[in-house]
């Protein structure tokens, strides 16, 4: 999170109908809009043999990007993806991709997101001893760019204390790019 908390601003308005003004520029992160970050396991699956990892795009959200207008999240809902392929663990990874807000903008660089994705996924899979399980990625928009860079980053870890990061690249069985520019 680091310097991000210093870039957040809190808008105050008056009862007289005046325009909102910025009075406190050192608002802590807890007062900022909810941006779910990191890895979230949506469905554990029945004896999973593959992991599906969804990565949202520009101005996206870890949950809302995959949720239709009728509030059905096609990744999480029991009647959707998990009913068709029950032996999968389905996860969604969230990052701050906010570029159009008047309240808060992301202060992170692409490479920061790349490092976080590789670290989050690698550490989670390593902790439950599934680091060699096949992965299928579903990436939308900017999420595809983050993923492509993450694979390059993962592949570059050939020795040293971050060698386990390479398991992300070597476990890929498929990638679905949706609206990702090349």
TrEMBL record:
Write down the Pfam families for this protein, in alphabetical order.
DUF676
List the GO cellular component terms.
Answer: endoplasmic reticulum; membrane; mitochondrion
Q: Which family does it belong to?
A: Belongs to the putative lipase ROG1 family.
User: Keyword set for this entry?
Assistant: Endoplasmic reticulum, Membrane, Mitochondrion
PANTHER family, sorted: PROTEIN SERAC1
Q: Which InterPro entries match?
A: AB_hydrolase_fold, DUF676_lipase-like, SERAC1
Identification of the protein by name: DUF676 domain-containing protein
Q: Main localisation, per the record?
A: endoplasmic reticulum
Organism of origin is Hyaloscypha bicolor E
Q: Where does this protein reside within or beyond the cell? A: Endoplasmic reticulum; Membrane; Mitochondrion
What high-level taxonomic lineage is stated for the organism? Answer: Eukaryota, Fungi, Dikarya, Ascomycota, Pezizomycotina
Q: Where is the DUF676 domain?
A: 52-157
């Amino acid at each position: 999170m680091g310097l991000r908390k210093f870039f957040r601003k809190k808008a105050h308005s008056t009862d007289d109908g005046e325009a909102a003004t910025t009075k406190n520029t050192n608002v802590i992160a807890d007062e900022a809009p909810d941006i779910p970050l990191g890895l979230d396991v949506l469905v554990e699956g029945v004896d999973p043999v593959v992991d599906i990892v969804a990565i949202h795009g520009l101005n996206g959200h870890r949950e809302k990007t995959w949720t239709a207008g009728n509030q059905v999240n096609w990744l999480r809902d029991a009647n959707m993806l998990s009913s068709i392929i029950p032996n999968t663990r389905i996860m969604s990874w969230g990052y701050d991709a906010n570029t159009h807000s008047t309240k808060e903008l992301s202060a992170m660089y692409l490479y920061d997101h790349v490092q976080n994705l590789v670290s989050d996924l690698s550490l989670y899979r390593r902790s439950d001893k599934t680091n060699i399980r096949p992965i299928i990625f579903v990436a939308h928009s900017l999420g595809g760019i983050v993923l492509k860079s993450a694979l390059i980053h993962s592949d570059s870890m050939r020795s040293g204390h971050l060698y386990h990061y390479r398991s992300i690249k070597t476990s890929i069985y498929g990638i679905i790019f949706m609206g990702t520019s090349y």
